[in-house]
Amino acid sequence: MANQAITAKRKIILDCDPGLDDAIAILLAARNPHIELVGVTIVAGNVGLDKTTLNALKVCELAGLTHVPVARGADRPLLREPVAADYVHGESGIGGVVLPDPVKASINRHAVDFLIDTLMESDGDITLVPIGPLTNIALAMRKEPRILSKIQEIVIMGGGTFGNITPSAEFNFYADAEAARVVLASGAPITMIGLDLTHQAVATEAVKERIASLDNHISRFILELLGFYEVIYKERGLPGAAVHDPCCVAYCIDPTLFTTKLLRVDIETRGELSYGMSVIDTYGVTGKQPNVRVALTLDHERFWSMLTDTMKEYA
């Protein structure tokens, strides 16, 4: 499995809501030699859809992704009122970082239709990598159920045994718990990269020194993002920013960086205090069939080596 992961190019569609760490995920996917980025679909989440779309286009242009389609998607959750994380990502969604207005424009097709058409025309070899709320993915599954047999895997950033927007819920699942419930109950092959894992991917001072040593336009951009992003994490007792979303791309590149376990995961949509919670049946007490491969541990050193090695491709 390790050799396959390292030698084969993996086709992915990145479904995102940029977002500081979404931007880093796009940059990792854009230039890693083991990823073929088929498309970027956008959802409202960290900030509203207009801002997440603009940020995606700016970062794609920075990464030289002129050939990769960017498609606007859902501007609100399936049922609930929209929530945002601008208190983390800044009013713009990418902190105080200023990027030029993009020449590139989003395609004239809704992200849900782009997902359906691309999957249906594929050989079943595309992995979906949703790193924002799961609204687009759930809508695509409901509109065209036949895509389920065409999805190689879904690698989700979401969930965990603790929360970061409420005591029990991670932001992406909380932002649209009904969509998360649809996706996790779909029967598709799913790997969940939750907060327990992503809080192991911390950009410490030593990590930032490694990034700074690259001294190219991308490394400088990432350091600006991390400088804004780390403030809330240091307030919460971490030594730096936890970069959640790039972990999903890293998993697609080389899953041997992670240990995982197949478990039952359900999404709470009714609880007064637990809305959006990923209920992980660690010990099999429910007797329900496991449905999600849950990431447990990360090789921190190899993860950051992968990221910095990829950043060298921008020199």
How would you characterize this protein structure?
By secondary structure, the protein is of the alpha/beta class. 38% of the residues lie in helices and 19% in strands. α5 packs across α6 (135-143) and α6 (135-143) crosses α8 (177-184). It has a nine-stranded mixed sheet with strand order 3-2-1-4-5-6-11-9-10, sandwiched between helices. A two-stranded antiparallel ribbon has the order 7-8. It has helices spanning 2-7, 20-31, 49-62, 86-89, 111-120, 135-143, 171-175, 177-184, 195-198, 205-214, 217-235, 246-253, 300-311, and strands at residues 10-16, 35-42, 70-72, 126-130, 151-157, 190-193, 202-203, 241-242, 258-267, 278-281, 292-298. It has 13 helices and eleven strands.
List keywords for this structure.
315 residues; Inosine-uridine Nucleoside N-ribohydrolase, Chain A; two-stranded antiparallel ribbon; 11 strands
Order of helices and strands: HEHEHEHHEHEHHEHEHHEHEEEH
Mean pLDDT: 96
Structural class: alpha/beta
Largest sheet: 9 strands, mixed
**Unreliable residue stretches:** 1-5
- Any idea how many domains? 1
Helix content range: 25-40%
Q: What integer value in Å does the Rg equal?
A: 18 Å
What is the CATH C level class, in words?
A: Alpha Beta
Strands of the largest sheet, in order across it? 3-2-1-4-5-6-11-9-10
| Count of DSSP strands | 11
Task: Tell me the overall shape.
Answer: globular
In the CATH scheme, what's the topology name?
Inosine-uridine Nucleoside N-ribohydrolase, Chain A
Q: Under the CATH scheme, which architecture would be assigned?
A: Alpha-Beta Complex
Indicate the proportion of strand residues.
15-25%
Distance between the termini: 30 Å
CATH homologous superfamily annotation: Ribonucleoside hydrolase-like
How many helices? 13
